[in-house]
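Reopening this one. Same input as before:
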Amino acid sequence: MRVAMIGTGYVGLVSGACFSQFGQNVICVDKDAEKIARLERGEIPIFEPGLDAVVEEGVRDGRLSFTTDLAGAVKGADAVFIAVGTPSRRGDGFADLSYVETAAAEIAEALDGYTVIITKSTVPVGTGQKVEDIIRKRRPDAEFDVASNPEFLREGSAIEDFMRPDRVVVGTKSERAQHVMRELYRPLFLNETPILFVSRETSELIKYAGNAFLATKITFINEMAEICEAVGADVQDVARGIGLDNRIGKKFLHAGPGYGGSCFPKDTLALVRTAEEVGTPTRIVEAVVQVNDERKKRMAQKIIDAAGGSVAGMTVGVLGLTFKPNTDDMRDSPSLDIIPILQECGAKVRAFDPEGMEEAEKLLKDVTYCEDAYEVASGADVVVLLTEWNEFRALDMTRLKGNRAKTLFVDLRNIYRPEDMAAEGIHYYSVGRRFIPPEGA
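Same output, byte for byte:
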């Protein structure tokens, strides 16, 4: 089948490349001529493990190509995916659908024969109908259906998530459109992957509901961590204890500095705004958004408290800047809240991230960027582990301490064991676990 993928951001590029692996002929479209030129040169504009190999294979086999010509890509396509950005709208938190609406209008002008137009972007309930109305108004003669097919890709493991998903959700009641979608996902049908056909509105809400629920689990365990610190309990044991209940499950029960990234912050906020608009407020999700925002600021105070109540004139070394490991994505990363607060309180900041420093430099000012974790620590009064990259999981503590008489280490991801760090002579502070004084302190 011939597929046009409108948008070569994270979702569009990953989806387009993976569909080419399924044997489809995919053309990825973007208005950014420089990005298209880079992709044609084999340069991947985002960091996602394994994506470069998938793109290279698709291009080599002639199933994947890139263009700025939307009309040429859409003409004759069996399926056209809209995978453009839907950021939070400034001022009110609603999802900004301007890119989706523009894409729909341009697709309408290029339609040639029966086509299924699919919203892959995360969009509020009712967007599929809006896309259909835009196209129908411009091309009342066109043969098409509009479907919803939300993505469930985790940054850092997106290829695996696309190729071996838990489920595929498709929103359409058109049998003709369902047939096209079955053909697109044929390899997954053969592998007996659950594929759920529902209404467009249901499909759109499934995406938001799923992300809101996961964000709620993260926020819940972070609140439990606060209680653990107050009463002397261990949040990791609490998480294990409740996670073994199969009604709850162990995933997304890792206490930390709050969620970030391209999905949870904007999707929870968009769901709150949508619910308000239709008169059904979501009190739980509203609380999740508020608590998570406060959580990031609370973590900055945790670092200050560990430093004795003030970081004025001190140097804080930060390990990890992206919102999670195995990505270069800085969107809504806790580092964007924590580092400026520390700077406002008089700290100088040194930092290292394996993949995120180029993006971080655009967003964080007056930060000294280092070559590795040990360079960060060499000039720091306090070392903070903010993102759990694998290379931070087995640091040489003797080298990290250097010649300092006292080493302060604040681990916001609970990578290390408090008793091990105490044995190393390190003043180690973690999340939701009691502080163990180092030997000899």
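So the earlier flakiness isn't reproducible anymore. For the record, The CA atoms of residues 242 and 419 lie 24 Å apart.
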